[in-house]
Amino acid sequence: MERSMLLVHAHPDDESIGTGATMAKYAAEGARVTLVTCTLGELGEIIPPDLRHLFPDELGQHRIVELDRACAALGVTDHRFLGGAGRWRDSGMMGLPDNDDPRCFWQANVAEAAASLAEVIREVGADVIVTYDANGFYGHPDHIQAHRVAWRAFEMTGGSGKFYATAMPRSVLAAAQELPEDSWFRRSTDLSVGVPDDQVTTAIDAAKYLDAKLAAMRAHETQITVDGEFFAMSNDLGQRALGTEYYTLLAGSRGPESPYERDLFGG
């Protein structure tokens, strides 16, 4: 029987940064990998100077193309926008006036959005759902809402299977922030997006697919700068791209491996 994984991400590029290697690994191994993106990322900060003329709606359309290229690099052929492309708009960072836009995902009716996602879950027969934790990994309103919507959809579809949140162990994050001496990226010691190591349940070794992940990240040219195995967002804070990606199991049976389970479909 075909294994089916569904990932729920807030914006184009989130899938590649946090789960790209995992997606490429399972797609290559024959699992059905479905990506649902909740917004077009219209309010992302644009890195390349020659693209900074793009207005938000133009940027959203540009990021559709970037996401298509990223999915191709990962070997993922099943991608959808929640409710259709542009149904919900990027909400911007927490506390900004954009959060109050009635079109934005932060203002979405959770039950309505979850019902749309539940249709996809049923269609693809998802055994595994991956999204963010209740804090949206780093507190972005669209990430928080993605968690709420995915959890409600999981409940609507019977709560069977496994439900994961992406996670970054603090020890791993600290190591990833160590940059080569000649790196032009800015250095960071901020571990606020990390979680205590013992909260992490799952580690997926997909180092074989790191090149695919890096190619997918490069496809998101407006949002990510990639230099070798290191990358930065618009803040220029450098970090190593990881071939092993980490998760916390929020529902379902954990696999038998210790200290981490090694297969999202295990258990």
Keywords:
Rossmann fold, 267 residues, 3-stranded antiparallel β-sheet, 32% helix, alpha/beta, 7 helices
Written account of the structure:
It is a single chain. The protein is of the alpha/beta class and 267 residues long. It has 7 helices and 10 strands. The protein has a 7-stranded mixed β-sheet, sandwiched between helices. The longest helix is centred in the first third of the chain and has 19 residues. The chain is globular. The chain starts with a strand and ends in a 16-residue tail after the last strand.
Concise account of the structure shown:
The chain has 267 residues and is α/β, with parallel strands linked by helices. Helices cover 32% and strands 17% of the residues. It has a seven-stranded mixed beta sheet with strand order 3-2-1-4-5-10-6, with helices on both faces.
Give the helices and strands, then pairings.
Elements: E1 4-9, H1 14-28, E2 32-37, H2 56-74, E3 78-81, H3 110-124, E4 128-131, H4 136-139, H5 141-156, E5 162-167, H6 170-176, E6 202-205, H7 210-219, E7 225-227, E8 230-232, E9 239-240, E10 244-251
Parallel strand pairs: 1-2, 1-4, 2-3, 4-5
Antiparallel strand pairs: 5-10, 6-10, 7-8, 8-9
Helix pairs in contact: 1-2, 1-7, 2-7, 3-5
